[in-house]
């Protein structure tokens, strides 16, 4: 018993000594700048719930957010797209560059302006290629592109042609709208295919997108479009701050008619005072450094107007 008491006393002494030693060690002091930054971070950085907008709609068709499940799904997309700030800013920048190309075509084709946001969620307004090999701003599959009149081969792939692919997307959407009766179901069919949407409507005995039980991708699809539309239309409301100077500009171009083979696009670009990279930036549908064109088909190649690029010429 006496031995145990001695051990406990010894441990107590050690513990007290440790506290005293630790108290005497000088802790590194924070600089005034560090303290100000930490205080600023605590006071200024906040994460807020996103209020549900009133009368939120897609292509003039209301999203029924009075239904609890619809409200939650809409809320999810608003939150995800609001707080993915880097991607959001890139979308604002690219939209300023490419919406002026897309909007007039939608108008000419009789498709609601809101469908430009479908291109945003499909590709982020980039010439993307999906794992399924869907390609371009509108993510068009090879078979669909050919079915709707696009040239798709190793030499030329017009799914990368913004204007032509936009018109194909319009034709596809109008056909789906005629079949299903609403633009919302037409948008869903763009993602899942008309056959897939038709089967699900029949199987579940419902008539609207919002009443369908769908897989995650198609189930989120229209909500994502509506959320991106809401955010891009109201940047300040969702905390995005930028000036016109921060946005990307659409670069004016001159059209050059080609109706013969081109053996070397490097030489063709140099002839027009640009390089091959810039030629490809404005004509991504040209897939190789030459154009076969044995049939002497007419193509329009875009050349940026002078003064927009500074290029170095190899010695």
Q: Secondary-structure blueprint of this entry?
A:
Elements: H1 2-24, H2 32-44, E1 57-58, E2 61-62, H3 68-83, H4 85-109, H5 116-123, H6 142-147, H7 162-180, H8 183-192, H9 194-204, H10 216-233, E3 253-258, H11 265-271, H12 276-282, E4 299-304
Antiparallel strand pairs: 1-2, 3-4
Order of helices and strands: HHEEHHHHHHHHEHHE
Sum up the overall morphology in one term: flat
Low-confidence stretches: none
Strand order in space, largest sheet = 1-2
How much of the residues is beta strand, in percent? 5-15%
Q: Termini, distance in Å?
A: 95 Å
From the alpha carbons, calculate the radius of gyration and give it in angstroms. Answer: 29 Å
Mean pLDDT: 90
- Could you give the count of β-strands? 4
Number of helices: 12
Helix content: 40-55%
| Largest sheet geometry | 2 strands, antiparallel
> What structural class is derived from the secondary structure elements?
mainly alpha
Characterize the structure shown.
- The protein has 12 helices and 4 strands; from the N terminus they run H-H-E-E-H-H-H-H-H-H-H-H-E-H-H-E.
- The mean pLDDT is 90.
- Strand 1 and strand 2 form a beta hairpin.
- The protein has a two-stranded antiparallel sheet with strand order 1-2.
- The chain has 315 residues and is mainly α.
- The longest helix has 25 residues, at 85-109.
Keywords:
mainly alpha; two-stranded antiparallel sheet; 315 residues; 52% helix
Quick summary:
This protein is mainly α and 315 residues long.
């Amino acid at each position: 018993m006496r031995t145990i008491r001695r051990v406990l006393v010894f441990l107590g002494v050690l513990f007290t000594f440790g506290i005293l030693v630790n108290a005497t060690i000088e802790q590194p002091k924070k600089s005034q700048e560090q303290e100000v930054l930490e205080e600023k971070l605590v006071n200024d950085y906040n994460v807020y719930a996103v209020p549900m907008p009133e009368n939120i709609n897609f292509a003039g068709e209301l999203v029924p957010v009075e239904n609890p499940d619809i409200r939650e799904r809409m809320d999810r997309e608003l939150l995800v797209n609001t707080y993915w700030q880097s991607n959001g800013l890139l979308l604002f920048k690219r939209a300023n560059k490419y919406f002026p190309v897309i909007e007039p075509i939608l108008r000419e084709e009789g498709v609601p302006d809101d469908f430009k946001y479908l291109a945003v969620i499909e590709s982020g307004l980039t010439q993307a290629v999906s794992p399924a090999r869907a390609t371009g701003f509108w993510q068009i599959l090879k078979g669909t592109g050919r079915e709707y009149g696009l040239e798709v081969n190793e030499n030329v792939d017009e799914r990368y042609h913004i204007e032509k692919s936009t018109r194909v997307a319009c034709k596809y959407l109008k056909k789906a709208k005629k079949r299903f009766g609403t633009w919302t179901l037409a948008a869903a069919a763009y993602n899942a295919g008309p056959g897939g949407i038709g089967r699900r409507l029949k199987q579940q005995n419902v008539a609207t997108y919002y009443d369908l039980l769908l897989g995650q991708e198609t189930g989120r699809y229209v909500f994502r479009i509506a959320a991106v539309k809401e955010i891009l239309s109201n940047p300040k409301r969702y905390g995005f701050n930028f000036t016109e100077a921060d946005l990307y500009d659409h670069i004016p171009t001159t059209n050059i008619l080609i109706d013969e083979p081109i053996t070397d696009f490097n030489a063709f670009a140099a002839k027009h005072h640009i390089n091959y990279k810039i030629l490809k930036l404005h004509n991504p549908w040209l897939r190789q450094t030459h154009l076969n064109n044995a049939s002497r088909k007419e193509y329009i190649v875009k050349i940026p107007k002078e003064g927009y690029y500074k290029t170095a010429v190899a010695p």
